[in-house]
């Protein structure tokens, strides 16, 4: 039992059943996020913002106690060029454009531009910009990855990385780290496409680049953010009318989750939606079945036909997760009039904005049972903490927890009858047993593995963890 897992402060989710030994009369549900209002939280508005793409990364800077959004907009004063801007927010909902005074646009530095159109070749397109507190080098505190150059066959076309000490002054690699068209007889990595993102893998102490390989997704890893492995496929389409446009990945608890931008290429669709991904090792990724994580907008709404990912992980805000996304009222490609002339005019609006959807903390999936009751038993584990905390909804039912030994015998004092019933809707409800109190006795015997058995009666369980 050298690989015995531990009950730690990391939440244990139910997006897969890798840590579940037995399910009896319980059902699993994957949950959609709820949109915040009917309008985007950040959209183009300044004179130097005029590009339909508006890629973005939104993070919460715990050191500075503020939300930061880096986003790409267009600047057409001298052709089709890009600028990257920074917006700030105290609550993640209401955003301001600080006057940074760093770069000129329209003969003024009164703007929030951090990467100007004069940077590089004017075609920078960074989709992921993150803060990396673990890097000991203060000049690499912020990291980014993105593609550059609309000259697809040119020598500069490819994916670049960039670093910054403050998120304002950025320096990119002199040559692509991945090329759209690798040069013959070189060590160039590629070929790759344009849609990409990056994950800071805190579990394995590495960086992961997610890249486009035709309609599939590729992955490359680096220990130092300098040298990368050859990109290798890890997700492929299921049929010819779908494309896996882009994806993110992030550490959540003791596992990895990701968000996939799924492109329906059907001639009457041309829509993009978000799907959930999961992985236990950061190498093999599974697509989670079911509805999109964030639903497409209805007729007349700003995100009617496209919902695409942003480059940063969801952010925990109180009891909710903030999930930012890009949305547009147009299709990815125009639907030919010969298919349906009536739907062609709705594609004239070419504006993409940033929206917000929220989800219960740990609420990607849940297991539930009705009044007739259900049971779920975990695989063996060891207690690393004294307390067991549940994220559950049982305010009109109840949930009880039992501790079993590896032979499925109830551990004295930790039986179902010993447990104080949980009858709350809470993300952090502590489990208590009448005489034992908490898991202290089990935690004091680290060599003693045990299982948790959850008894649900008209109750729903989202996650469990130690505390």
Task: Walk me through what this model shows.
By secondary structure, this protein is mainly β. It folds into two domains: 5-29 and 366-466, Jelly Rolls (Sandwich); 34-362, Glycosyl hydrolase domain, family 43 (Tachylectin-2, Chain A). Helices cover 1% and strands 41% of the residues. The chain is built from one helix and 34 strands. Strands 3-27-34-30-32 form a five-stranded antiparallel β-sheet, with no helix packed on it.
What is the strand and helix layout of this fold?
Elements: E1 5-7, E2 20-24, E3 27-30, E4 34-35, E5 56-61, E6 66-75, E7 81-89, E8 113-115, E9 125-131, E10 142-148, E11 158-164, E12 170-172, E13 178-179, E14 197-201, E15 206-213, E16 216-222, E17 232-235, E18 242-247, E19 250-252, E20 255-264, E21 271-279, E22 286-287, E23 306-309, E24 315-317, E25 320-328, E26 353-360, E27 365-369, E28 374-378, E29 381-383, E30 388-393, E31 398-404, E32 425-430, H1 440-443, E33 451-457, E34 459-466
Parallel strand pairs: 1-29
Antiparallel strand pairs: 2-28, 3-27, 4-26, 5-6, 6-7, 7-8, 9-10, 10-11, 11-12, 11-13, 14-15, 15-16, 16-17, 18-20, 19-20, 20-21, 21-22, 23-25, 24-25, 25-26, 27-34, 28-33, 30-32, 30-34, 31-33
């Amino acid at each position: 039992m050298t690989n015995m897992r531990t009950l730690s402060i990391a939440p244990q989710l139910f997006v897969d059943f890798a840590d579940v030994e037995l399910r009896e009369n319980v059902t699993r549900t994957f949950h959609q996020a709820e949109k915040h209002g009917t309008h985007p939280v950040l959209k183009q508005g300044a004179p130097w913002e005029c590009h339909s793409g508006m890629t973005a990364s939104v993070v919460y800077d715990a050191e500075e106690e503020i939300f930061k959004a880096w986003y790409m907009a267009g600047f057409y004063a001298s052709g089709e060029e890009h600028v990257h801007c920074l917006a700030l927010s105290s609550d993640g909902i209401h955003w301001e454009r600080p006057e940074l005074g760093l770069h000129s646009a329209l003969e003024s530095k009164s703007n929030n531009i951090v990467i100007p159109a004069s940077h590089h070749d004017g075609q920078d397109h960074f989709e992921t910009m993150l803060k990396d507190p673990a890097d000991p080098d203060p000049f690499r505190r912020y990291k980014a990855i993105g593609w550059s150059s609309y000259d697809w066959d040119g020598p500069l076309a490819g994916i670049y990385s960039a670093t910054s000490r403050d998120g304002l002054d950025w320096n990119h690699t002199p040559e692509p780290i991945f090329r759209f068209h690798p040069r013959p007889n070189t060590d160039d990595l590629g070929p790759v496409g344009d849609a990409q993102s990056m994950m800071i893998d805190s579990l394995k102490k590495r960086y992961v680049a997610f890249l486009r390989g035709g309609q599939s997704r590729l992955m490359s890893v680096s220990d130092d953010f300098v040298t990368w492995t050859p990109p290798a496929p890890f997700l492929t389409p299921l049929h010819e009318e779908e494309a896996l446009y882009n994806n993110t990945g992030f550490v959540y608890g003791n596992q990895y989750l990701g968000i996939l931008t799924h492109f329906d290429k059907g001639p009457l669709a041309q829509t993009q939606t978000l799907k959930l991904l999961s992985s236990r090792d950061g190498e093999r990724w599974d697509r989670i079945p079911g509805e999109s994580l964030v639903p497409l907008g209805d007729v007349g709404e700003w995100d009617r036909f496209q919902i695409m990912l942003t480059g940063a992980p969801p952010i925990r805000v109180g009891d909710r997760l903030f999930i930012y996304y890009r949305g547009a009222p147009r299709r990815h490609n125009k639907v030919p009039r010969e298919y349906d002339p009536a739907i062609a005019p709705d594609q004239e609006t070419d504006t993409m904005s940033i929206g917000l959807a929220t989800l219960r903390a740990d609420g990607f999936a849940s297991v539930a049972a009705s009044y007739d009751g259900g049971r779920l038993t975990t695989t063996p584990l060891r207690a690393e903490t004294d307390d067991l905390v549940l994220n559950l909804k049982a305010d009109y039912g109840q949930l009880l927890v039992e501790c079993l030994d590896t032979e499925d015998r109830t551990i004295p004092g930790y039986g179902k009858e010993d447990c104080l019933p949980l009858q709350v809707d809470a993300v952090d409800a502590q489990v208590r047993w009448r005489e034992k109190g908490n898991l202290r006795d089990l935690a004091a015997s680290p060599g003693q593995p045990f299982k948790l058995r959850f008894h649900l009666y008209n109750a729903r369980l989202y996650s469990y963890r130690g505390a």
